[in-house]
Specification:
Elements: H1 3-23, E1 28-34, E2 40-41, E3 49-53, E4 57-64, E5 77-83, E6 89-97, E7 100-107, E8 113-118, E9 131-137
Parallel strand pairs: 1-4, 3-9
Antiparallel strand pairs: 1-2, 4-7, 5-6, 5-8, 8-9
């Protein structure tokens, strides 16, 4: 890891810590890679999955690596949360990723259940395989 990348991570971790201190509540930080092979990846997981508690504050820290194509606005991957039961979109959970690392402050859905994350940017010919399970616990 280069010095610039290390410094960015330290700044991002410090900012997340400050957010926790100010809010007085624990913030669940989720580290995710939207990778160049058109797959979402979570460290230590062969089949990536995110599990959260209903209504909890979250920081989604994403490192996006360019696939073979990107949107006109420079986005290289997307992240939209769908309800598994009817595939309807969850409001506030349609994100676009630019190259590099970025953070999104979100709140977990209030309704417990199964959800699916899908990529909304055609990032390569393997784009259709870019999805993962997202579970909200009570």
């Amino acid at each position: 890891m280069g010095n610039l990348q290390f410094c960015r991570k330290v700044v991002l971790i410090g900012a997340a810590s400050l957010l926790v201190a100010r809010a007085g509540a624990q913030v669940h930080v989720i580290e995710l890679v939207a990778d160049s092979d058109s797959r979402y990846k979570v460290a230590g997981q062969h089949h990536p999955e995110i599990t959260v508690k209903a209504g909890e504050p979250l920081v989604l820290r994403v490192t996006a690596r360019r696939g073979k194509s990107w949107n006109r606005d420079g986005s290289i991957h997307g992240f939209t949360l769908l309800r598994a039961k009817d595939r309807s979109k969850v409001e506030g959970w349609s994100l676009l990723f630019k190259p590099g690392t970025q953070e999104f402050q979100l709140t977990a859905p209030a309704e417990p259940g199964d959800y699916e994350v899908v990529c909304t940017v055609i990032c390569s010919e393997d784009h259709e395989g870019m999805h993962m399970k997202f579970t909200v616990l009570p």
